[in-house]
Amino acid sequence: MTPDLDSLRLLVLVGELGSLGRAAERLGVAQPSASKRLATLERALGLVLVDRGRRGSVLTPAGVVVGERARRVLDEVAGLLEGAEALRSAREAGLRVAASMTVAEHLAPGWIAELRRHRPELRVGLRVTNSETVVGLVRDGAVDVGFVEAPGALAGLSTRRVAVDRLALVVAPGHPWARRRRELTAAELATVPLVVRERGSGTRDTLDRALPDACPPALELGSTTAVRGAVVAGVAPAVLSVLAVGLDLADGRLVEVPVALDLRRVLRAVWPGGRRLVGPAAELLAAATRRSSMGP
């Protein structure tokens, strides 16, 4: 039986929210109906996808993998619908923006909201992808400005710092490192398989530069949310932005492990080299730098 899209959305939301009840509320269905839908999905696939406990619902290791593939299916469907809408609409976005996932999920909405307070008529198109793809879109002229997490030089592009981010080594509360107080050395961390983002993401690039001799990963996933879900499920530790796991650390769903590595990184705006940003693109960059200087 082919899973329906609502069941896939429910599974992804359980992974993101850590609660079947909250996932059901987000979808506007009763919790018993959501539980039955998940059970039907598990029977259809022959897998246990969700571990239901007193502290909430978390994805099993199999659920993390299925959830990541479900996210890709949902992203493709969303892309199809967005493409159809674009074909129906004769108008083009007044400002075309691409942003890496951490920036798009945690910073760009505030920047765009500030811009639209001054330009309420402006239509902004935001494409969310990894840093490598953002750079390609800027070079191809497909967007007016991009925002990336990628370290290192970007040939042929102009860049400006908009924020500083920090990566943290995180584990589930039951992991042996959860009570560790002594810093892990880089050599110790390099021997442990981690859950990582795909190559081309800024988070992965930063980690690869910090640990060039790291052992092969335990699991490679295409989104920060999926990596976070895998850590919560106890698959393996991961190195993630504190922007992405701040609430999990505060609520005790994840624990930060001290590590003897400088995992700070600069988040940058990028646009074609030799050009000066003007109009809405320049105004968005100004909004980003203003909010960064104000702090969280």
UniProtKB/TrEMBL annotation:
Instruction: Please identify the protein, giving its name as recorded.
Output: DNA-binding transcriptional LysR family regulator
Similarity field: Belongs to the LysR transcriptional regulatory family.
Q: Which Gene3D superfamilies match?
A: Periplasmic binding protein-like II, Winged helix-like DNA-binding domain superfamily/Winged helix DNA-binding domain
Signal peptide residues on this chain, from the entry's feature table: none
Checking InterPro entries in the record gives:
LysR_HTH_N, LysR_subst-bd, WH-like_DNA-bd_sf, WH_DNA-bd_sf
Q: What residue ranges carry the coiled-coil annotation?
A: none
Residue span(s) of domain HTH lysR-type: 3-60
Q: What is the lineage of its organism?
A: Bacteria, Bacillati, Actinomycetota, Actinomycetes, Pseudonocardiales
Q: Which UniProt keywords apply?
A: DNA-binding, Transcription, Transcription regulation
GO molecular function of the protein, one example? DNA binding
**Could you tell me which PROSITE patterns the record lists for this protein?**
HTH_LYSR
Record has Nuclease as a keyword: no
